[in-house]
Each structure stands twice: as C-alpha cells, then as structure tokens.
Amino acid sequence: QVQLVESGGGLVQAGGSLRLSCTASGSIPGSVFSISGMGWYRQAPGKQRDLVATILSGGLTNYADSVKGRFTISRDNAKNTVYLQMNGLKPEDTAVYYCAADLFVVTPGTYKRHWGQGTQVTVSS
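RE: above sequence
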C-alpha cells in the first residue's frame, strides 16, 4: 500500500545532467509510519545493484565513491520526496536507478524497506 514513484530518467550525452525524483505515498493498514532513510541504488549492465547515495531524515548523506563530487542527494520531508541531481554524467553511470525508503512502522515498531519501480538512465559517449 506504500508506493515509491520515480521520475526524471532518460537519455543524455556524456557530461550532461539529469535530476531524479522519488515520492512516497500511501499507507500501511492498521498502523502509521515515518520515513527515516531514503536513497538511490542502481543496477548497471552486468553488475549488482549498488548503493549510489543515501540521506537520513536529519540530512546526513552518504555517497558511493564513484559519484562523489558529481551527484547530490536531497530530500523534502514534508513532501516525502527524495531527489538525485546528477551532473557530469559518464557512460558508466548508465543503469536502472531505484529509489529506496526505510519506513519506521509504529506498530509493531519495526523498519521496512520499500523500493520504487526503477527509472532508466542512459549516458551515451
């Protein structure tokens, strides 16, 4: 019943920029929840799904070494939305990008990982 919807993927030439957005919506029957961490993961051709960047509700961020200095993650807690600004894109950034959110479910007091459907980012040489 909780959905993460991504947008902003597309085709861009090397050196270009894209901005991904992901918004969480919905509810969990019988409980309430808050969103703690949000982040972006990607799965490149022939590769595992790897962490790109994460951000906690308080603003603490973490980035994969491969994207530091080029990508910026941010969030709007009031809108339950996380963004990924991608600058200086390289062909090796080509992947399906997945939004993730860690929800704290008040009842029973546990965390639950939710995933978006993914959005394709393709960077041409």
